[in-house]
Amino acid sequence: MSRDILPDLLPPGLRLVFCGMAAGPESARRGAYYAAPGNRFWRMLQEAGFTPHRLRPEQFTELPGLGIGLTDLAKTQSGVDRLVRVTQADRDRLAQAIRAAQPQALAFTSGRTAALALGLKVLPFGRLDDALRPAGFPPIFVLPSTSGSNNGNWDRNGYHAHWMDTAMTLGFRKTA
Known about the structure:
- By secondary structure, the protein is an alpha/beta fold.
- Helices cover 31% and strands 10% of the residues.
- The chain has helices spanning 25-30, 41-48, 88-101, 111-118, 151-157, 159-169, and strands at 16-20, 68-72, 106-108, 126-127, 140-142.
- The protein has a 5-stranded mixed sheet.
């Protein structure tokens, strides 16, 4: 059996779990989530109001203290998201982990990850229609990817607003 590249952070009582595709090459090398220099994840957590200050990737273990957990769809692979091969075992593992942790909400950190995890085609950013939510899952949000390879899309597509809206909806941020 393959070992997880990064550990799940899924203790009970979480307000929100972020789910990515898989550890990127830099994250796998450093043993920390969203560790590539161009990745906006840690910046967006702070700017959107999920965290009171900007954390470094190596501080990921502090997130459960803020009510936030982390996982990936493909736990035993690392690499560029578009090259990760997701299996039914990956989907089943994620479903089991989310149902066991029972967070108040789940946010996928890319539309592709959400679509592959849920077995759907294309999903819009924002809150997923509850009719599409798997049994035993909390409300689901689909967010734009924070990957450095997606940075050119942020400004022209208003991706920042989706992260801000999710933080407001979930009560992490009090004002716009």
